[in-house]
Amino acid sequence: MSSLGLYIHVPFCAKICDYCDFHAFSAPEWLQLEYLDLISREMSAFAGRHPGAFSRVGTLYIGGGTPSVLSPERLARLFGIIADMGVNVASLKEATMEFNPESCDEERVAVALESGITRASLGLQTLRDDLLDRVGRQHDVATGKRSLELLMSKKVRVNADLMFNLPGQGIADMLADMDWLTGLPLGHVSFYGLKVDPSRRLGRRIARGEESVDEDLYADMYLQGVEMLESRGFMRYETSNFARAGEESLHNLNYWRRGEYLAFGPSAHGFFEGVRFSLPEKYAPWREYVKNGCPEGALMLDPLGPEDEIAEIIQLSLRTRYGLSLDALRERGVAIAPDAIGRWVARGFLEQSRGALRLVGEGWLFMDSVVLDLFSNCVPFYSNLE
Fold this sequence. Notes:
The protein is α/β, with parallel strands linked by helices. It has two domains: 4-256, Aldolase class I (TIM Barrel); 306-383, Orthogonal Bundle (Arc Repressor Mutant, subunit A). The protein is built from 14 helices and 17 strands. The chain has helices spanning 29-49, 72-84, 106-114, 129-134, 141-152, 171-182, 201-207, 218-231, 250-256, 283-291, 306-318, 326-330, 338-346, 367-376, and strands spanning 4-10, 57-64, 94-99, 119-125, 157-164, 188-193, 235-238, 241-243, 261-264, 269-272, 275-278, 300-303, 324-325, 334-336, 350-353, 356-359, 378-380. The strands form four sheets. A nine-stranded mixed sheet has the order 7-8-6-5-4-3-2-1-9, sandwiched between helices. It has a three-stranded antiparallel sheet with strand order 10-11-12, with no helix packed on it. Strands 13-16-15 form a three-stranded antiparallel sheet. Helix 1 (29-49) runs parallel beside helix 2 (72-84) and helix 6 (171-182) runs parallel beside helix 8 (218-231).
């Protein structure tokens, strides 16, 4: 039986970034303590219904929000709850925790490492103070660099998050950030383009004309960023994730390979026994869900049919450098019409080799269009269209 991922969502932040559309909020001490009690009850309820599930956990990811906003004592309590479920964090294939620079300190890092964390992900986003301020980040560049140095001084793998296409950011600014970062003994970089939610503070400022994002720079920033990362030994193994050899995120690879994973906390999404599910998005409904015994009827369930599985295989596989195995489709009785493949190959967006399709060049920028077209042109395998 394959191993499971385990994701725990900590919905708290000291300050909400102006662009953020994740479920996160600032919370007083009593609410954080309540959250820990509710997480314990939620995980216990799941363990009661699915005996042995936690014994199958192979990777852990504690995300948010900002998990490091919890005090060292509350972090220790969270790891204690995980241990109470029978998960030995130190023995997992990988255990990741997210940190923000303003709450990444010796005490919190010590608790995380002593509890079994082997991978830390740090939200730097940019190395320019004026840009950090424009998107509402709480930390400054000096704090970000100190936090990164602290993590790299420990026996833990480190990922650094960078964002591009920020308001006022030019290509030279982004490349300067990347040049500095890739000169460090770092194993992993996540490289994300800013997505502006019109309902958030940044989106409202843009709508009022008080701020602007140059969308025309997006493609060049991404392509030039990829080029620099790969020239420095960071290979793109997923559209936004780059790693030196052997430094890939095992937990996230499980997502993209359609592996199953458990999920706990408000707004968390999981995949278990062939069903995708999401928990109540906001904290208050999630609290009631837990207090009522975690009834399955309160979850949003998405059982996958054959077409759903095929769509997922195409979409998730093409996100990665490993590509889409045509045999994986044939095993489900379908193939992709050759003329559909040929269209994208001719445009230089797709390559076909060793029985797989892979995005290349600007194809990574048009991934959604490629995926939709390939899925729309799936045909029964017995048609012998190869």
